[in-house]
Description:
Blueprint lengths: L3 E4 L5 H10 L11 H9 L3 E7 L2 E10 L4 E9 L8 H11 L6 E3 L7 H6 L20
Pfam family, one: Acetyltransf_10
Enzyme class: transferase
Protein name: GNAT family N-acetyltransferase
Amino acid sequence: MSIEYKINKKITSAQFITLLKSSTLAERRPVDDHDCIDGMLANSNLLISAWDNKQLVGIARSITDFHYACYLSDLAVHVDYQKAGIGKELQITTQAQLGSKCKLILIAAPNANKYYEHIGFTNNKRCWVLERGSRIGS
Length: 138
């Protein structure tokens, strides 16, 4: 298997949705809302993708200032390609695009905590999320 990694290669919402559905991430992403998916792709400023020939098999989708913080919003690898180092390489390639002081930040899927700890991330209990529809100050 020869995987090619690409930086900021344009991918379609259909390719992204197919990958999300073939990984474990679709259950936590709006795969039925094409406008939202289009916006997610259009407004990401760092996109690392993994390809097996013409098939998208992995993605690291981030929003970053490249100097202080990089939010890795989506890390997905097709189930048939998992445990082959693709996710790790997507993160390494993401990190290589960032300045020396830039932190890589993510919210782990429920079953992924041990994975991130294993590859060197530290747990930060200070993350807070305000769900859409919730009101500030209520």
